[in-house]
Design brief:
By secondary structure, this protein is mainly alpha-helical. The chain has four helices and two strands; from the N terminus they run E-E-H-H-H-H. It has a two-stranded antiparallel sheet. It is elongated, with a radius of gyration of 15 Å.
Length: 107
């Protein structure tokens, strides 16, 4: 069971999977916009967008990790498992890049 910070109830693994893929297009668009903007700007604008990207990734990263941890119980097909693994790798890379931007927003 996954307890969502913004929800008043816990989610089962199958509910978390439905939540993730229902909201995936919106959070991918939001994250990518902040990552792109942080990468093409400097200073406080870069810092603000890096922070926003990290904030936008918080719930998806947590739910993605939960889903990958329970992948066998969910009996995920290969395509879904690969999508989750690819998302995890991308968000990990974005997190590292955003932390670099926060460390030195003028670089």
């Amino acid at each position: 069971m996954l307890k969502s910070g913004c929800m008043a109830r816990t989610l089962t693994a199958s509910e978390a999977l439905a939540w993730y893929f229902k909201r995936r297009p919106a959070f991918v668009k939001n994250i990518c916009w902040h990552v792109y903007t942080a990468g093409s700007r400097w200073g406080t604008t870069r810092q603000r967008h890096a922070e926003s990207a990290l904030d936008a990734m918080a719930d998806p990263v947590r739910v993605n990790a939960f889903l990958l941890q329970h992948a066998d119980a969910l009996a995920l097909d290969t395509t879904t498992r690969e999508a989750l693994e690819n998302d995890a790798a991308e968000m990990h890379a974005y997190t590292a890049r955003m932390r670099t931007y926060l460390a030195n927003p003028w670089a």
